[in-house]
Amino acid sequence: MAAAYLLALFLVIYFPIVGQGFVADDFGWIRAARPSIGEATVNAFSHSTGFYRPIVSASFGVNHEISGLNPRPYGLTNLGLLLGCAALVGWLATLAGLTPEFGLFAAALFAFNPHGVDMAVLWVSGRTGLLLTLFSLAAAIAFLKRRPVLSAGLTFCALLSKEEAVALPLVFFLWAFFEALGGERPWQAMRAAFQRTQWMWAAGLVYAALRLHSGAIWPTNAPSYYRFSANPNVLLRNAREYTDRACSLSVLVAVVVFALVRSRPSLSPEHKVFLYRCVCWVVGGFALTMFLPVRSSLYALFPSVGAALAATTLTSAWWGQLSILPKRGLIAVALVVPLALFPVYRSRGAKWFVAARLSSSVTAQLVQRVAADPDTRAIVLQDDRSDRSNRANLANAFGPAAPDVANLFFARPVSLRIEPSPVTQISPGETLLVLDGQTGQLRLGFVD
């Protein structure tokens, strides 16, 4: 009943607002997926001028083949992937020796984190983080079930989904090392850990070779905001913000339970090893993004798994020290808090909801205008960004993807560009359209 209640609550939060439209990077992904699924997948593996994420490209190819430019199925796919990740979190918790009830608790801690999850579900391009997390969790489950080849294959899929997965071979090496350290000397434990993860290291080498052949960006030739920085200010700010986004909810849970127990948790050796593994997961999840000047809540999705599992392990260890009344009170609070935070989840998702709805509205108006006027060859959109509190602007909806929007939605070649207000000059042959930020409607504009 608790599982059904939490699932229903999660769907009430996200199902009505998911898949309302495409935003920013979405258009580029879908444009690359417009060929047949096979052709798009081959292109994704063999050539890339940006990120190297072939599995993400293939997933968009499948969506495009099924639903074309209807954004709703894309969003529902993201929603399904998030629920799959939550289920795997619960499964992983039970493999670590926790009861199914605490497996559900870990899954809920992950899914109801107010940071990262909203972005992953409501922004179609958030699928990169979802696929990374899904394959990484599946690889961890295969690892605990001692299926090294399967675990290496799933690690390879995670690598083909998002770059943060390059830390997975090292994370699993440390997992095996801590497990072996209890009965062997350190150098023997390291040798045993390498033997258990050798196929993962091989998968990493294959990934590096494919990426090098594809022409994808590396830290040395990436845009400035994707280049690693050792600036202490950047590192300290990233550490503070990412710790908050990935760990705050889990830490709060552990603090509340500790306040009731006020004693050290009774951890079994198995659970101590699992806590070490959770720490490795969190640190490994931020191994790349911690050094990037650009910040995103999506970067917290993958590491937040480790925080949720760690808090659940500690709660499980404390649980036996509680009497029946505090247990019932904690269960009631755990079920009520997500419902009480419903306005928080909706307000955090408003950014993506508003941008997606505006994107859908503007693209529909543009398609109608281009179809109604065969002479239109170039359009300039005037975007009013003076009110920073108003998210209904084209900078949020389209970003730099105006050429991709034109390529996807217009039946004939028509150039499209976006300029901030006021536009004082346009080229001959261009049509100026002004966006009303309050109504979302386009009207014909004039340059004095």
Task: Give a description of the structure.
With 448 residues, the chain is mainly alpha-helical. 64% of the residues lie in helices and 5% in strands. It has helices at 2-14, 25-32, 37-46, 54-67, 71-95, 100-111, 117-122, 127-144, 148-159, 168-181, 186-214, 232-261, 269-285, 301-319, 324-340, 342-372, 394-397, 402-409, and strands at residues 378-383, 415-420, 430-435, 442-444. The chain starts with a helix and ends with a strand. The mean pLDDT is 88.
How are the SSEs placed, and which strands pair?
Elements: H1 2-14, H2 25-32, H3 37-46, H4 54-67, H5 71-95, H6 100-111, H7 117-122, H8 127-144, H9 148-159, H10 168-181, H11 186-214, H12 232-261, H13 269-285, H14 301-319, H15 324-340, H16 342-372, E1 378-383, H17 394-397, H18 402-409, E2 415-420, E3 430-435, E4 442-444
Parallel strand pairs: 1-2, 1-3
Antiparallel strand pairs: 3-4
Helix pairs in contact: 2-18, 3-4, 4-5, 5-6, 5-8, 6-14, 8-9, 9-11, 10-11, 10-13, 12-14, 13-14
Output the keywords.
448 residues; mainly alpha; four-stranded mixed β-sheet; 64% helix; globular
Kindly report the average pLDDT value.
Answer: 88
What characterizes the major β-sheet? 4 strands, mixed
Helix content: 55-70%
What order do the helices and strands follow? HHHHHHHHHHHHHHHHEHHEEE
Shape: globular
Q: Tally of extended strands?
A: 4
Task: Output the strand order for the largest sheet.
Answer: 2-1-3-4
Give Rg in angstroms. Answer: 24 Å
What distance lies between the first and last C-alpha atoms, to the nearest angstrom?
66 Å
Q: What structural class do you assign from the helix and strand content? A: mainly alpha
Helix count equals 18
Estimate what percentage of residues fall within beta strands. Answer: under 5%
Low-confidence stretches: none
